[in-house]
Amino acid sequence: MIKILDCTLRDGGYYTNWDFSKELVSTYLESMNMLPVDYLEIGYRNNPMKDYLGEYFYCPSYLLEQVKEASDKKLVIILDEKNVLPVHVDNLLKPCVGIIDMVRIALDPQQFGRALKLAERIKAMGFEVGFNTMYMSRWREFPAFLEDLRFVDQVADYFYMVDSFGGVYPQDVIETINLIREKTNIKLGFHGHNNLELGLINTLTAIEHGVEIVDATITGMGRGAGNLKTELLLTAMNAKDGLEVDFNALSKTVDGFSQLQQSYGWGTNLPYMVSGANSLPQKNVMEWVTQRFYSFNSIIRALNNQKQKVKDN
Amino acid sequence: MIKILDCTLRDGGYYTNWDFSKELVSTYLESMNMLPVDYLEIGYRNNPMKDYLGEYFYCPSYLLEQVKEASDKKLVIILDEKNVLPVHVDNLLKPCVGIIDMVRIALDPQQFGRALKLAERIKAMGFEVGFNTMYMSRWREFPAFLEDLRFVDQVADYFYMVDSFGGVYPQDVIETINLIREKTNIKLGFHGHNNLELGLINTLTAIEHGVEIVDATITGMGRGAGNLKTELLLTAMNAKDGLEVDFNALSKTVDGFSQLQQSYGWGTNLPYMVSGANSLPQKNVMEWVTQRFYSFNSIIRALNNQKQKVKDN
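Output (structure tokens, whole complex):
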């Protein structure tokens, strides 16, 4: 049976700086208790940073306990490999023991060796471990990473393909699964973005080809163009496979996040489509779009220049 | 070479009651002149109706001439088979001669016989003829229609599959193409809706399997959840197939319609997902959603009742 992980609070935090109102989170957790979702990823754990970042960027003990109290689901936090060394693991994760079921690692495939070491420490503390490995469309450019893939099942439970640019098509998903399967039999996951509105079909294709866990977020809330929408995945699986869905519970939490969406405006648009289709990083695009200072026109011009590798004019 | 038909003004009219400002239309036509779009469907031709309906519902002569003046593209109007008899054709289409290149017929497959007669009259006036045949997901339920399909190439140039509920998947598109191919070799078209965000992948699948003309609208503007977005199709074909796209021209017209979208709110959401996934008509859903009187929750409840064929509670 396919497992669904909802990471609305973690991935949606890119828009709210990881602050969410108590009411919104409470409705979200209640709704999730009624829905066929297996894991909730609630945020990052991080060492203190200079800039202000909200609760769900750090997930302090009191927050972990509140969520645990309110939720029947398996809980997940994620570590960003580039900010965390193995020596930090004990401090960061001790408060999670007994509360958090899975710890995921977001990683650049070029740092795969470092991530393996990190995972070893995490696994030793008794957590399930997931690898969220970025840039799946470029993995063939990293032979050392592909070579080392065979070590991953010793330290991890799930190995995710992340469509970081939001530019992969169903055929690419199938080819990437085959590429991994040459190296390891670890359980696979898929995290899709929605720049080209391919989140659903890529995810369903992944499931059809043996992926065992998939990510989604309510209203697609997430960095840049956002993610596969949880409500779309559940509605499709309800109609296609008879998955039981409490649509009242689902629409309550969708309503809450839809209101936030009116202010923050996540979702795809022409700049995100162009960045996705051409595998350009969406971090810049998100800054340009959300500032509302540049016209789409000038963003498109800048992206075209990136694409053709010429200087902005 | 695949042909693209943009029907923003025709299909978008469901939201604006077929009124559009002169500025918006002028930017749209100018942009389209710069883009690799072959046909523009600008509206309906209709006999006078009792209720108020805007210019693009009737496309009077002065409007046809203005658009012809401003546009380099092949122009299209559509007739709704249920409102038009063969005896009306001369009156409705005489003003179109020399201006309009293609006349499409929107039809229920159960009225296919009537549509063939209508098409005969239209063809005799020298127009290209397109059949926009609704409810593709239910065609197997209409054996008389399937049997009569073999007559269509005598009176029409294009035969469109319309995903009226927005619920078909790529595999369904392939199967429907095969179903038609048993009966006729007419050139095929595809008109996708976006309830499940499958507009792009269904359209690309259709093209891959020999469909020769596809519909799209700027920002997806169109009845209910709306259509495949023209900007998404062009961006994908630019990145995948090297189709030349003037992104400045594209983003100018996208900007204009995006502003309208803020007021009218077309695009998919949970109620449209549920209606699409379960092949429920989106006309009711659109009324409920746009009135903003009912909560999504109560709409979902009503849809669930329709799905289970019980009375509203």
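Chain A has a mean pLDDT of 93.
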